[in-house]
Amino acid sequence: MxxxxxxxxxxxxxxxxxxxxxxxxxxxxxxxxxxxxxxVRTWSVTHHxxxxxxxxxxxxxxxxxxxxxxxxxxxxxxxxxxxVIPPTPTNLLGTDGAEHKRLRTLTAQAFTPRRVxxxxxxxxxxxxxxLDALEERANEPQDLKSEFSFKLPMRVIGExxxxxxxxxxxxxxxxxxxxxxxxxxxxxxxxxxxxxxxxTELMERKKANPGDDLTTxxxxxxxxxxRMTDEEVLGTLQIVVAAGHExxxxxxxxxxxxxxxxxxxxxxxxxxxxTWEAAIExxxxxxxxxxxxxxxxxxxDIEYGGVTIAKGDSVMISYGAIGRDRGQHGDNPExxxxxxxxxxxxxxxxxxxxxCPGAPLARLxxxxxxxxxxxRYPDMKLxxxxxxxxxxxxVIVNSLKEFPVILRP
Length: 409
Hints:
Blueprint: E1 9-10, H1 18-28, E2 31-36, E3 40-45, H2 48-54, E4 60-61, H3 68-71, H4 97-107, H5 113-117, H6 120-134, E5 142-143, H7 144-149, H8 151-161, H9 168-179, H10 185-208, H11 214-220, H12 230-261, H13 263-270, H14 276-286, E6 292-298, E7 302-304, E8 307-309, E9 314-318, H15 319-322, H16 326-329, H17 359-376, E10 381-382, E11 404-406
Parallel strand pairs: 1-2, 3-9
Antiparallel strand pairs: 2-3, 4-6, 5-11, 6-9, 7-8, 10-11
Helix pairs in contact: 6-8, 6-17, 8-12, 9-10, 10-12, 12-13, 12-14, 12-17
């Protein structure tokens, strides 16, 4: 009798057929056996309800000390996807239970709905500045991702954490390599070290000259006498700055792409028959900023969905496939529909104790920036055919290399 692990679904690092891959994963679910770039195999959760249950299952740990394949020496230390797995449990991504709650309490206070809402005027101001800057070349092709989708969230998160604007380009280059599934081994190691060096130097500057920013706040955070170690602050900075801009870059780009591809949906927004909030949630479901999120590790055997997740196995969450769940989103989840009633019940920002703390900020940036963009440039169109857009080579983040548009055709 064939084993569920005999024929894994091989994920393409160059993302040549993202839609087909999502469908194959969903059809193989609720738990599918997949092969990641580099020959690393893992379980993938591909259905909505399964993700909700397993993301709250205490038998799945974020601590890679439970990863059997790594402990057996089967994972190369230069495997590029190790970049998103904390080697030691010193930040939000690598901890569980009380330790995770402790770090989240010290970190997530910056992203409460009330504090995020106070950023609305500044987000609007930055958006206005960026839209003004686009005017100079409005009637010729320009890369909306580089000039708008990237700059807005990077400036917002940079101002929050005291990262100078002059360093934004350097961080973009480093994170492109950091999230790539095809970064050469020697470049992967150099990129990881460069990011550590960048945030170490940022911390040292803030220790010497404290400012009104969240890096200073993390270094000085004190919850009933509990303070974060330098290693914990470093790990937290690496996560929040990466997630604080990358997710929003992709949310903005993917939503604009969908609305240009389906002008009937854009018309619903212009005529008030649908809201921007609904369009953003549908975009998050239909084309989520994160394709797959790795890893959790089984601390004991887990029976689920007709398979056994063995102790030491790794488990990832496939948000692209989950957004295609018929049981959750109806019979036509492949259709982009801003009036879909189930879009608000997606889990593209995660679920359970590890749900993305920056989700309110990402949503606010999109809710402010997208209406302003389309109001300023109502006739915007792609500068190439949609089929010519090239994805970044990553099985983790769902992003484009470039997004060329003509703002005033």
